[in-house]
Amino acid sequence: MVLGLAASGNVTTNGTEQVVFTQSSVNHYAVYIYTQNMQAGDELTIRVFVLDDDGIALRKYLDIALSGIQLSPAVFIPFIPTGQYRVTIQRSAGVDRNYTFNAWTA
Question: Mind listing the pLDDT tens digit for each residue in 39-94?
């Protein structure tokens, strides 16, 4: 396996579920989302979706709920082998903030 940066960028929350990274080819995917901008009163949900075992639809694989100031200012979603992959972010309380990310393939 060769490690490679698939994408990097930023997303500013707006209260709706927003796509951070999506890919539709067979690979192993991992994502870092940097949450150092979170403050007291902020609530954030990060969701990971993968292709189901029938290869037909994306299904939710993981929910990560965060709130307040983060002592560990990065969330790492470990490598997952799949044929399709999506990571989303949604603010449910607090203030809209900018979050940067790096998505990796292997």
Answer: 999 999 999 999 887 878 899 999 999 999 999 999 999 999 988 999 999 999 99
Domain residues for 71? 4-105
Q: Which of 90, 89, 68, 15 is nearest to 103 (CA)?
A: 89
- For the segment 9-35, the average pLDDT, to the nearest whole number, is 96
Q: How many CB atoms neighbour CB 90 within 10 A?
A: 15
Q: How far is residue 91's CA from residue 80's CA, in Å, rounded to a whole number?
A: 24
* Residue-level length of the chain: 106
The per-residue DSSP string of 9-32 comes to: EEEE--SS-EEEEEE-SSEEEEEE
Check which CATH number belongs to the domain holding 19 and give it.
2.60.120.380
Alpha carbon 37 to its chain centroid, in Å, reads 15
Dihedral sign computed on CA atoms, order 71, 92, 10, 98: negative
What pLDDT was estimated at residue 29? 95
